[in-house]
Each structure stands twice: as C-alpha cells, then as structure tokens.
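Re: the multi-chain job from yesterday

Posting the exact lines I submitted so nobody has to dig through the queue logs.
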Amino acid sequence: MVAPATADWDALAARARLVRRSKAAVLYAFLIAVSLPIILPYFWLVTIAFSARTGVAETAVLWRSMGVVVPAVIAFWLTAALAQSRRQLWTGITAVAVIASLAFALLVGPDLHLGNFIFLWEPDFASVVRSRVGEVRGAVQFPNVWHAFANSILIAGAQTAIVVTVASLAAYYLSRFHFPGRSAMLRSLLVLHAFPVLTLIVPMFLMLYWIGLLDTLFGVILVLVAFELPFAIFIMKGFFDAVPWDIEMSALTDGASRRQAFVSVVLPQVRNGILAIAVFTFIRGWEEYIFVFTFLIRNSNWTMSLYMYWVRDDVMGVDYGVVSAVGVFYLVPSLILYMAAQRYLMQMSIGGVKG
Amino acid sequence: MAKIEFRHVVKRFGAVDVIPDMNLVIDDGEFVALLGPSGCGKSTSLFMLAGIYLPSGGELLFDGRVVNEVEARDRNVGIVFQSYALYPHMSVRDNILFPLRFKKTPRDEALARVKAVAELVRVEELLDRRPGELSGGQQQRVALARALVKEPELLLLDEPLSNLDASLRLSMRTEIKSLHAQLGVTTLLVTHDQIEATTMADRIICMRAGRIEQVGTPDDLYLRPSSLFVAGFIGSPPINLIAGDAEGGMVAVNGARFPVEGASGRLTVGLRPEHLRFADTGFPGRIAQIEPMGREILYVVETGMGAVRVLEQGSSAGHSTGEEVKVSFLPENSLVFETERQKLIAGAHVRAPD
Ligand SMILES: Nc1ncnc2c1ncn2[C@@H]1O[C@H](COP(=O)(O)OP(=O)(O)O)[C@@H](O)[C@H]1O
Ligand SMILES: [Mg+2]
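And the result, structure tokens for all chains:
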C-alpha cells in the first residue's frame, strides 16, 4: 500500500461508525414503534382502573398520563443508546425517572383512586355501582370475586400439576425407550396440538354430559389437561433428549434403581423444562375462557375469566372503571408468575426443542 | 475383587451382531486393556460387565457365578465413563457420596470414606465445587473417586484419558497405574489408543469388529502380533507392511527381490521402523522425507519395494533429503504374514539383500 492508505482508513472507520450508529437508531425506532401498540392497551387498562369514576367517560387523564409516559420511555431509550459509560447511563436513567415521576404525580396523581376495586370487598358491587346512576334493577348476581379467584387457581393449579406429572413421565418414556409406534406417536402429538379447539367443543360437551362432569371444575380440568398434554410432552421430550444417557447409566451402576435414577439424576437436569411447561400450562389455565364458558354454568363455578365476562356484560355501560379494575386484578397473577419464571422461560429456547 | 469370565457371550442390537462370540478370562486383580478401533464393541462389552446391557447370549461370570441377569446396582462395579458422567447438579462431595447413598452407609462413615478416596485421587480441595467448575483432569479424578468409593470388585474405565490434553494424559496414565498397584482391584481399561494400552495394562485384549484378535502382554502384541491387523494397529510410527509373492525362497516385491525362509505364496512382510537401519548393504533407496521426533528421527525412504519408514535414535539427522542410502535389518526382527488369511507365519523370516 502507498502513503495515503492511513487517511483512507480513517475515512473508512468514520463511515463504518456512521453505518453502525444509523443502524442502531433505526433499530430503536423500530422497537419503539412495535412496542407502543403492545404496551399502550395495558397502560390504558391500568390508568383507567385507577382513575375512572362511575358514569364519567373521562379520557383527559389518559392523554395526560400518555403525555408523561411516552416521552419518558423514549427518553429512557435515548439515554441507553447515547450513554458512553455506566456512570452516564445511571445518571441519565435516574434523571429521567425523577422527572417522569414528578410529572406523573403532578398531572395524573390527583385523579388516582382505589374506588374501582370495590368488587374486592363488596360482593354485590354491581347494585352499588348501578345505584350511583339510579339504575338498580336487573343486576347480575355475582359470586364473591375471591370465590372465582379460588376456582381459577384450582383449575390452573390442578391442570398444571397433572400436565407436569404426566408429561414428564410420558416424555421420559418417549425419550428413552423404543417401542413399536414410537415415531407415529411423536408425530401425532404435534398433529393433536394443531386442532382448533372450537371444532371439538360440541362433542366434548356431550361427552362431559354423559359422564356427568358437565358444570364441574373437574370436567374442565380434564379437558384442559387433554389439550395441553401433547405439546407439553413434546417440549419435555426435547429436554429429556438433551440429558446424556451416561449420567443415568452411571446412577444405575452406582446402585440406584431406575426410578431412583430418574428422580435423583434425570429430573434435576430437566428442571427448567418442568418450570417452563408449568408456567405456560398454569397461565393457559388461568386465562381459559372458551371451555369454562361452555362447560360451567352455576355461578359458584365461575372462574376469573367468567367473572370478567359478566362484569363487562353487566356494568360496562355504566362504569368501565370497574371493568378495568377487574381486568387488572385478573392480570396480576399471570404477570407475577411470568416475571418470577422469566429466567427459566428464556432457557426454553436454549434447552432446545428437538424432535 | 473378582475374576471375570466371558463364555460365548453374544450381543445383538436389532439384527446386528455387535459381539458375535466373546471368550475371555480376566484374573483377579489384573489390569487388562481392551484395545480396538472406534466402533469395534469395546464399550458394549464394558456395559455388559457393568450390567447396563443384557447379553443376548452366552454367560458372563464373576468369580464363577453367572451374572447375566444380575442388575447393575447389585454388581458392585465401579465405572468411569468416557464423558465422566458426573451429576452436574450436585457438588463434588455429593457426587462421590452418591454410590454410598444406596448402600445405607452411615453418614459419618460415608463422609470419612469420601474424604479418604478424595485424598487418594487428590480432589480434597474440590469437594464443595460443582462439576461444571472443574477442568477436564479434575473431573476425571472425581469420576475415579466416585467409582472407587464403593470399593468395587471390578473397575471399568471407558476411554478415561481421551478427553485430556497430552501432558495430563501422561500423568493420569501413571496415576491410574499406581492406583491399581495400590488397591489391587481388577481393572478393565477400554481404549482405542495403543500407547495407553501398552503403557498401562498387564495384558491387552485386541479387538476388531466385535471379535478378539489377540490376547497377550504388550510385548507379545508388539513383537509377535498374530495378525496383520494387530501388527498394523500397535506401534507408532506404524509398522512397514510390504506385500509380495514368494517362490523358491525369494520374495518379489515390485522390483525388489530378497530371500525368505519358512514361507511361500502370497506374503506380507512386516518390518518395524526402529528395526530398520542404514547400512552398507541392503535395499538401495533415496531419502524422501525427514521427520524429527525429538529423541528419534523418522526417515521416509523410497526403495524398490515402495516407501518404508526408518526410525533412527538421536536428535540430529545424520542424513539429508535426496541422499542415496541402503536399508537393512536383522532377519529375526522381520515378521511374515499370509496375505490371504492375514495370519502370522510362525518362524518365517526375510533377509535384506546383500
Ligand atoms: N444401543 C445401541 N443400539 C444400537 N447399536 C449400538 C448401540 N450401542 C452400540 N451400538 C453399535 O455397536 C457397535 C459397537 O459400539 P461400541 O461398543 O460403542 O464401540 P466402541 O468400541 O467404540 O466403544 C457400533 O457399531 C455401534 O454403532
Ligand atoms: Mg466406546
């Protein structure tokens, strides 16, 4: 190379820097553009739940809170993108957080209240809410919300326990033992999961009726388990496949029985898989709507989703603050669960889903 | 300690006879190596001994008792897997304790034994770590400790050194050998590395495609290989194998002709590189390549019978590439095999031409 080479390299480096920066800018713009539509509905739900008042279709609070939150989010991202050091990053984030909280307290704070969560302590809240606008008659008879909450926990919890147990054992067997029809079974596991549930709802209604499990929580649990099992087995098989045979064989020669080896050596290796399917199955049961709507009738059997549905049906026109509050209440457990299990869920993609 | 016997043992996977018919006796306290190329059924034999695989036929005996159907956990066999197979979710201490868990050993005694065996293989500082935090050599030691803690009657080592780097392999070789000398436990080492087998074992079982080719001391296998396969498999740099036709006491290989005693027909001559030397008489050739190997120098010499490897002691080359030389050897160091049956012809020799 001749002398000007160094000068050229500076120009090349400058161009590469520019390209890198503009790529990052485009990426952030894209992330903001796609995440706003996802975040906004949740944000509105929460804001309405804590600010709306009976009979008032007020949207000013919404816009004001948006006016605080959207610039705050953008400022956070800009800080993260532009900060040159850890120190700068933390100072920037703290500054944005302080300004945003102050603005929020001033602009939105005075409008916040907990009145919409009346359903938590007043089972007959529908009548109370209606009476505020003078329309008392014809309210739906709501069960205690904690009863619905317990039903949902029961359905999701029992379903999770059954799915995790059965899927682990079945997947282990599928992973470790060869038997006639094994690959056909694996294929059918996936096909089963491909069925749209609505196509089966009528036959299942009839079956539950015949075996006398219609309008029982147990019936719904069984149906949910049947629908969730194939995919859970499939996922778990991937996890078991990743556990080396050697460890198990080693446990056997170390004096363990097959069952002891499974429990003390194999299961701990698939712990993340079990956590992942447990969380997904629980949340699936928690959000379940179609089956409970079809198979559960008595209001003592209502789950949170049915409760939510009837609240929406009954008081929506009057007070959507209460509807939103029920929504927030319904949302919180799955949110907590997701956040607690996030670390393990991320590993699903690492643990590898292998056929 | 146990005496191990294979009597017409067969192992089939589906329609494939991985082990067609295995007969073998391993004496109490012996250190035996099972040597053969990858996929020849070494691990399969080992797993049958451990009770992980059920033999498809024949009898497997420990101290004269048939153990074919005895479960792995009742055999008291210690095994070190190629991958070490440590339990990743347990500390090193719990890994070593694991075999004692099922023997209902009292906690104090179990811990004492763990400590003793950890000292034996020098991992006592690692007891609180997880296997994932250990180097390959340390994992290897822990695996050994776990296999030894139950005081097994039989110790099985499946390619224990293949995942270690060269210098570690050298020191582990010595260590495993001295462990055996110390404990006297019957040990079966599986390896595809002939150096490992010859340096560590009292006796070597050389396998090929599920069959035993030869059983003997390292010297037997090296100096008197019973077949072309064993001759070619053992020794590094490998033996020179030269195929030719013998008639009237002379072998003809390519252009070269030289005397042979005690054999005729289609033959393969085997000459170890270190048994060849440069001399005033012998096969004329030209040095094509020189490979210094530290204490020895390997020459590749083009001769009338093809390229041969000659190994010479010393660290500096006494010859240069392209030099014309003559290669000779002592007749008693030559091996003669039947090309057709691949078997050694006992007592047959060849001689370098004058
Ligand atoms: N569980 C099994 N199922 C089918 N074939 C097997 C199984 N285990 C080993 N084999 C086959 O048996 C042969 C010997 O394997 P192995 O004993 O592992 O060889 P190595 O001598 O390398 O240890 C190989 O061809 C292998 O493919
Ligand atoms: Mg092997």
